[in-house]
Amino acid sequence: MAERVATLDLLTAGRVELGLGEGQGPVELHPFGARVREKREVWEEAVQALVPAFTRTSWEWHGAHFDFPARNVVPKPFQKPHPPLWVACSNIQTIANAGRWGMGALGFQFVSADAARAWVNRYYIELTTHQSKLAEYPTNPNIAMVSGFMCADTDAEALEKAAGWTFFVFCLSHYGRHGIPNPGAGNMWDAYQEWRHTDKAQETLRSGLIGSPETIRRRLREFEATGVDQVILLNQAGRTTHADICRSLELFAREVMPEFHAREPEHDRWKADVLAGRVALHDEDADTYKLYAHQNEDIVRLTPEQLKAKMAAKEREAGRT
Fold first, then answer.
1. How many of the other CB atoms lie within 10 Å of CB of 137?
2. Of 83, 99, 131, which residue sits at a domain end?
3. Do residues 71 and 60 touch, judged by C-beta distance below 8 A?
């Protein structure tokens, strides 16, 4: 992985940002013989084994899950010491861990501005007062949220073209409730057709950045005021056409982005003050906000502790039968 990341960083003249994650559950882990309950420990060790390979000319690792002799991994990255590190936070609780680890937090759109403010504050409090890095790397103080996206001239047109986002959420819900079918045994697009007209689907449309430029500007202003650093736009899902995606991005770049770019220096000053301790943030009980805007009862992300307890209970039950 270190070799591939460094090669891509060289090819792009330093545009790589490295996102890391432990995996969601059995669908992603079991095919590789990995145990769900161990995924946090395996991921933490992977970070410890990986990061030094970007900079050291001789690096070896002998751990519980990875073992390799001394090697000089080449090439080395374009960025020094290496690309910024992010961690996937599909479980919203991981945002606090990201702060402690000194990594960027890559999550989804929050349910409200209040939820965003609470988690932004929690992240920066952990980063500035309880930081405990997994290895030696530069701190990447950033929070990014992935949002369902479609920008069109009118709200109605955007909603009509945003089926890709609802399909994405439908698949997460379906897999969460039923699991993934055997290869070639299911047709998710056909199964989606009935669900797309339900109340849940309509709620999903309202959870994203979907609408006219003015509608999206209004929603983005709410999150901008909370200290969220970046927004990642997701509309390349389902059967959204390439032409609609391009038109949407062009309209967004022309009609929405300039306003927020103009205020970026103000945000940079706020963040610098937070990191320097000149601004005191209050812990607003982020734990009361347990889900992202797109999540429902079928899209649940358990903490490592909850996963271990669940698997232990499952094994005890199996032992009684």
1. 22
2. 83
3. yes
pLDDT by residue for the chain (321 residues), tens digit each?
999 999 999 999 999 999 999 987 777 888 888 888 899 999 999 999 999 999 999 999 999 999 999 999 999 999 999 999 999 998 899 999 999 999 999 999 988 999 999 999 999 999 999 999 999 999 999 999 999 999 999 999 998 888 778 888 888 888 777 777 777 878 888 888 888 888 888 888 878 899 999 999 999 999 999 999 999 999 888 788 999 999 999 999 999 999 999 999 999 999 999 999 999 999 988 988 888 877 766 655 666 676 667 767 776 777 765
Give the residue from 83, 99, 115 where a domain finishes.
83
Structure tokens at 225: 């005021």
Same domain, 150 and 28: no
**17 found inside a domain:** yes
Query: Which tokens in the block code for residue 304?
Result: 């490592």
Residue 132 is assigned to a structural domain of this protein: no
Number of domains in the chain: 2
**What are 124's two structure tokens?**
């920066």
Dihedral sign for Cα atoms in the order 34, 138, 222, 168 = negative
Q: Where are the alpha helices (DSSP H) in the chain?
A: 2-11, 26-29, 39-50, 94-101, 113-129, 155-160, 163-178, 188-195, 199-207, 213-224, 242-255, 257-262, 264-275, 304-320
Based on the domain organization, do 22 and 153 belong to the same domain? no
286: Cβ contacts below 8 Å, ≥ 6 apart: 95, 96, 115, 118, 119, 121, 122
Residues, the chain, total? Answer: 321
Q: Is residue 296 part of a domain?
A: yes
Q: Is residue 185 part of a domain?
A: yes
Domain extent, residue 7, equals 1-83
